[in-house]
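A brief tutorial aside. Many learners find it easier to grasp structure tokens once they have seen a single protein encoded end to end. The record that follows does exactly this for Decorin. Read the sequence first, then the structure, and try to relate runs of similar tokens to stretches of the chain.
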Amino acid sequence: MKATIIFLLLAQVSWAGPFQQRGLFDFMLEDEASGISPDEHAPEIPELDPLGPMCPFRCQCHLRVVQCSDLGLDKVPKDLPPDTTLLDLQNNKITEIRDGDFKNLKNLHVVYLHNNNISAVGTNDFCPPGYNTKKASYSGVSLFSNPVQYWEIQPSTFRCVYVRSAIQLGNYK
């Protein structure tokens, strides 16, 4: 009885045709012959929300932290994720903080701008006029190792920083 079962199994294997290597194009021809378009086999790719938060090119974003240090940037990246709480821009070549660089960042708290080329800081760079300081305040701004003259910065520039000792200036190379 065992010999009969083994014979039947071997007989089925011997009826199989020889292995033929097939390429992708061969499968596409089969699909066309059967009336199936190649797109029907492709998995659906979800569309990205064009208004959703994106991480700036070459930066790394994780858990509301945007890390763009040591990239040779000459300006603050645009379109930062609006839920950013910590922005690390240290060791770049940023020369100025422009109007609106941080305007959509309502939850921004430890801004690292040290070791750049920032020579001036305006009174509205970190806290635009009419900004509700009770809604979001900085817990720290790091500007040391920049050519900015700290005695030329107006005190109101850091009105959104709720701990004055968290402002770091000076020590330019």
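Self-check: The first strand starts at residue 60 and ends at 62. If you spotted this yourself, you are ready for the next section.
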